[in-house]
Write a structure and sequence with these properties.
Largest sheet: 6 strands, parallel
Order of helices and strands: EHEEHEHHEHEEHEHHEHHHHHH
Bound molecules: NADP nicotinamide-adenine-dinucleotide phosphate
Number of helices: 14
CATH superfamily of the largest domain: NAD(P)-binding Rossmann-like Domain
Strand order of the largest sheet: 3-2-1-4-5-6
Strand content: 5-15%
Number of domains: 2
Length: 286
């Protein structure tokens, strides 16, 4: 099968490496070509232009920053002119559900299939092909592409087009608020004279335990804020959550607090640090 992959960032690069373990021919494209070159040694074919990448593919996967980046690619004249009928475009970036629905409709008019299939599990999940994949779209198209999705993680069909992105926003409500809760728990423990690493161990297996407690908690304790998931991405997700909630007349007071804290971090220039850096914003709150 000929598969095209657009976006070789923190998530895209390890996902491409997993696809390259199969017999499929994998072509890749990235806006900054130099960042994609390192994947050639794993067997990827590097396309220098978007039309070259798009042509003659059965599947095109996109893994891009945000709604604007996805639309820049999928809605571009070059993409729409060169994409073949019956190709499936799978957008694995995190966007608003409304963006996914618009892209589904635009591509359908050209006889091109679309799945929204955002992920959770971070760079670790991308490396180990264990990402939670939330899929929206036509069920028969989901089934048709299941084998390829399984090379990247654990796909689950959520429902009609845009449902994958809606599920991902629900996921990000939990991720954002939990990173905030873990930050407060570590700050609290330290102030009471406890060793936070001992608290993490003691909480293991209890109701408060989670991947975020053990992973992001450790990053906070070690003050290791090298980005695996960026502050900018988390802020984008929180904005998309609140935007979608507003459109549907839903109040999300906790998400609003977390969005405001991430906004402060972004204004201070910390966009490219890990989203666990929220810990510092809460620590220095007053
Ligand atoms: N990192 C995580 O833990 C994580 C977990 C789950 C989901 N996600 C989601 O996965 C997606 C990718 O995240 P990431 O962490 O891999 O981000 P990243 O490392 O910043 O990569 C973003 C990619 O998008 C490309 N891009 C950005 N703007 C573009 C534009 N206008 N036109 C074309 N390409 C553009 C970048 O190209 P350049 O190289 O040229 O900048 C890069 O390839 C995001 O939607 C994020 O929310 C991330």
């Amino acid at each position: 099968m000929n598969i095209g992959f657009i976006g070789t960032g923190l998530m895209g690069a390890p996902m491409i490496k997993n696809l390259l373990k199969s017999k499929h021919q994998i072509s890749i494209f990235n806006r900054t070509i130099s960042k994609a070159r390192k994947l050639k040694r794993y067997g990827a074919y590097l396309s220098y232009k978007i039309d070259e990448l798009v042509k003659d593919k059965e599947i095109i996967i996109t893994m891009l920053t945000d709604d604007k980046a996805v639309n820049n690619i999928i809605r571009s004249k070059t993409f729409l002119k060169n994409v073949c009928k019956e190709t499936t475009v799978i957008d694995m970036s995190s966007t608003k559900p409304s963006t996914a629905l618009d892209n589904y409709k635009t591509l359908k008019k050209k006889g091109v299939y679309f799945l929204d299939a955002p992920v959770s599990g971070g760079t670790k999940g991308a490396e180990s092909a264990s990402l939670a994949i939330m899929v929206g779209g036509e069920k028969k198209i989901y089934k048709k592409n299941l084998k390829v999705l399984k090379m990247l993680g654990i796909p689950n069909y959520v429902g009609k087009p845009s449902s994958g992105q809606a599920a991902k926003l629900a996921n990000q409500i939990i991720v954002g608020i939990t990173i905030g809760a873990v930050s407060e728990a570590i700050i609290f423990s330290k102030k009471l004279g406890l060793k936070p690493i001992n608290v993490l161990k003691a909480l293991k297996g209890g109701w408060a335990d989670s991947k975020i407690l053990q992973t992001h908690g450790l990053r906070m304790i070690k003050e290791d804020f090298k980005a695996r998931g960026k502050v900018a991405s988390q802020l984008k997700d929180m904005e998309n959550i609140l935007n979608t909630a507003k459109m549907n007349k839903i109040n999300l007071p906790l998400s609003m607090i977390i969005r405001n804290l991430y906004k402060k971090l972004s204004k201070k220039g910390y966009d490219n640090l890990d989203h666990s850096y929220l810990y510092k914003e809460i620590k220095n709150y007053f």
